[in-house]
Amino acid sequence: MNKILYLATLCITIAFSKASAQQEHQYTQFMYNKLAYNPAFAGAREVASVSTMYRRQWLGFDGAPTSYMISYDQPLMKKRIGFGLNMHRFAVGINDNFVGNMCYSYSIIRTDDVNIKVGIGGTFRYYKFNFSDPNFYVRDINDPFVTTATEQSNISGNVGTGIYFTYKDFYIGFSVPNLYRNKIQIGNTTITAENREHYYTTAGGIFSLSDNIDFKPSVMMKFVKNAPFSADINASFLFNRKVTAGLSYRFGRSAIADSFDGLLFIQLAPKLGLGLAYDYNVSMLSAYNKGSIEALLRYDFSVPAQDKGDLTNPRYFF
Question: Which of 26, 68, 187, 252 maximizes the CB count within 10 A of its CB?
Answer without folding.
Answer: 26
